[in-house]
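Risk mitigation, structural track. In case the binding assays with 2-phosphoglycolic acid fail to produce interpretable data, a predicted complex structure has been prepared as a fallback.
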Amino acid sequence: MENMRRLIAGNWKMNNLAARAEQLVQAIDNHSKSIINNKCDLLICPSANLLQMISKQLVNSPIMIGAQDCHFEEKGAFTGEISAKMLVDVGASYVLLGHSERRHGLFETDNVVRAKVKAAHKESLITIICVGETDIQKENGETLNILESQINGSLPEAKDKIKSSNTIFAYEPVWAIGTGKTPTLTEITEVHGQLRNFLIKEIGPEASRLRLLYGGSMNAKNALSILNIDNVDGGLIGGASLIEDEFCKIIDIASE
Ligand code: PGA
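Fallback model:
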């Protein structure tokens, strides 16, 4: 398996007003500039209202900017929604899709996620497709089935369109998100290995180059052991991405 450049992505969710966002971004940017031989890619996913401000702030920075969702239509009568084209217009180059807080909290189906992936790729956004099982599904031994069906349901039919340059997957067990609980290292090793094999079977050899992120209560304490697992090519980090010291420590670990 190739050694991939890691991606550390901060998912701010519905947090941070403009003044705090500016301060946090500045701290992360200053810190990452000070790392010699920075060996990882960095992504910040703020709420949509902050995208333009942050993209101006990071104009000379390698830190990339992503949105947390998009609509599947390009424009029209969809009150409250934001399209992939609009995200690109304000400086985003990535978008998270199918996050469990949208799948479970907002009843987003695989079909909707699939339509969003297509819309995002059309605008050349890099998609981070999130999948994960609930605690009950885990107890019932259904983890792999759930992940496979979420992936099959969320990928565009034309699998040859899935490239390492436009698609990333994030394994985020629903029960680990924001709870301080994480799977054991053995469990993450198993699931990421199974995901890799499944993606290769579905997509072909290109899937050996796709980045697979782990997400769910990753922090400065557990990042080293999680990031060193085979087939874990980075992290999608919620709570810990809101605290500069914590996030910068994770960046240091991923850059070693
Ligand atoms: P968490 O969130 O790091 O706070 O668990 C991760 C995510 O939801 O992407």
